[in-house]
Amino acid sequence: MTDTDALRNAKRSTRIDAWCGYTMEAPPVSAMPVSGGTINMMEYLLQGSVLDQSLESLLHRLRGLCDNMEPGTFQDHEMVFLLKGQQGSPFVLRARRSMDKPTMPWHLRYLGQPEMGDKSRHALVRNCVDIATSDNLMEFLLEMGFRLDHEFVAQGHIFRRGSMKIVVYKIFRLLVPGSTDSIEALSLSYLVEVSVVAPAGQDVISEEMRNFAEQLKPLVHLEKIDPKRVM
Amino acid sequence: MGVTCVCQMPVAEGKSVQQTVEILTRKLELLGAEKQGTFYVDCETYHTAASPMGNQGQQGKLMYVMHSSEAPLSCYALFENGPCLIADANFDVLMVKLKGFFQNSKANKIESRGTRYQYCDFLIKIGTVAMGPSARGISVEVDYCPCVIVNDCWNLMVEFMQSFMGSHAPGLPSVFSNKHESVYSPADTMVQYMELLNKIRKQQQGPVSGIR
């Protein structure tokens, strides 16, 4: 317990006692709950894509460049929820669950407006909040007033290099809403993303990401892609 | 943790909140319960800022975000008679982002703090419930750690609670009603705290506004 905490507790207890007209020692608080989490984390992102037939050579290259870990695959079901206000743009949240590891927590993600920045910054930057949750997330979001906008299945490979996360995955659409039993690939290519989540203002990271992206050329060209331009 | 019961202990006649807490803790210590530090449960209230278009039912719905020292890296978000989401502490950051849709009504923040005792397989937490600077009541939490099925241990828990609460030992909590044979979870404890803290908040708001 820090001194400031102790002081705050002491003050609080004095006020309680003042109200009761009775004095008692401040209860020592040994375990203060952590509230607040980590404010202002940013995701640095580079994106690209490869055709199905080039997948193996890219994976081969990534196995050589990335940290020595068990080659990981994943199959996730992602649902995108919107909360509409009376004006302004809707609030978007992404809920993801692992289909191949069903006992893992669900993942709730908020992504802020992407900032392209100038030429000196080599990656797209956006505010992000990552939350692990229990499996009743969908029911809870609906209760909060969110509505399901769209959903998809992402299936692919994951690599790591230092703090960088590299995912190579294919997006599938659901033929029956809500059911991941029958899915259909959206394209004949794989999406490639390199991302780092770090506290705001650490633009050096984008330099490191660019250097890594250079090493993947010409197999894949990773760029900062402005989502507004794509739409 | 196992099956847990959260209830209110009325303030003894002619005594203050603190004095009643002392009487309770003394009884526990006489039983042989050992002091094990302190605990903390808090509850923040959020209300929908503006009713979304064509969604009038949302208006007036309250959402509660709670923290507990028993799981200090977690955050519980719940609706009255609705689902309880268990999330990590980053959920608090999300609520900051959502402030255009959900507003924290700071004046309604209510918390219970006090001492944590252990007596054999039981964990007992006696807390002073406070809203801002004012003490509002007393919460008693009894956790029977070895068991997660309500029906298998409820009678034992009642007997234990009677040993230090006397006639104020509670009846079967409402969250238990559909849990007789199923597995008890930490979220059920937070639902009980939410109901208790809400009850205490409402009990006090009546007379206070009457004086004004």
Task: Record the SSE blueprint.
The complex is a heterodimer of chains A (231) and B (212).
Chain A: H1 3-20, E1 41-51, H2 55-65, E2 72-83, E3 91-98, E4 106-111, E5 124-133, H3 137-144, E6 147-161, E7 164-176, E8 179-185, E9 189-199, H4 204-215, H5 227-230
Antiparallel strand pairs in A: 1-5, 1-9, 2-3, 2-6, 3-4, 4-5, 6-7, 7-8, 7-9
Chain B: E1 3-9, H1 17-31, E2 34-48, E3 62-68, E4 74-79, E5 84-88, H2 91-97, E6 102-104, E7 110-119, E8 122-131, E9 134-144, H3 150-165, H4 186-211
Describe the protein.
Chain A: This is Mediator of RNA polymerase II transcription subunit 18. Chain A: It is found in: Nucleus. Chain A: Belongs to the Mediator complex subunit 18 family. Chain A: Its main location: nucleus. The complex is a heterodimer of chains A (231) and B (212). Chain A is of the alpha+beta class and 231 residues long. In chain A, 23% of the residues lie in helices and 40% in strands. Chain A has an eight-stranded antiparallel β-barrel. With 212 residues, chain B is of the alpha+beta class. In chain B, strands 1, 2, 3, 4, 5, 6, 7, 8 and 9 form a nine-stranded antiparallel sheet that branches. The longest helix of chain B is centred in the last third of the chain and has 26 residues, at 186-211. The model of chain B is unreliable at 52-56 and 207-212 (pLDDT under 50). The interface between A and B is large, with 46 and 55 residues.
- General shape of chain A: globular
Please give the largest β-sheet of chain B. 9 strands, antiparallel
Say what oligomer this is: heterodimer
Strand-residue fraction of chain A?
Answer: 35-45%
Widest sheet, order of strands of chain A? 1-5-4-3-2-6-7-9
Number of strands of chain A: 9
**Main beta sheet of chain A:** 8 strands, antiparallel, barrel
Order of helices and strands of chain B: EHEEEEHEEEEHH
Radius of gyration of chain B, in angstroms, nearest whole number: 18 Å
- Fraction of residues in H or I helices of chain A: 10-25%
How much of the sequence lies in strands of chain B comes to 25-35%
C-alpha Rg of chain A (nearest Å): 23 Å
> Total helix count of chain B?
4
Q: Assign an overall shape of chain B.
A: globular
- What structural category characterises the helix and strand content of chain B? alpha+beta
Number of strands of chain B: 9
Backbone structural class of chain A: alpha+beta
Measured by residues with Cβ under 8 Å of the partner chain's Cβ, the largest interface is: A-B, 46 and 55 residues
**What sequence of helices (H) and strands (E) makes up the elements of chain A?**
HEHEEEEHEEEEHH
Uncertain segments of chain B are: 52-56, 207-212
Give the integer mean of the pLDDT values of chain B. 89
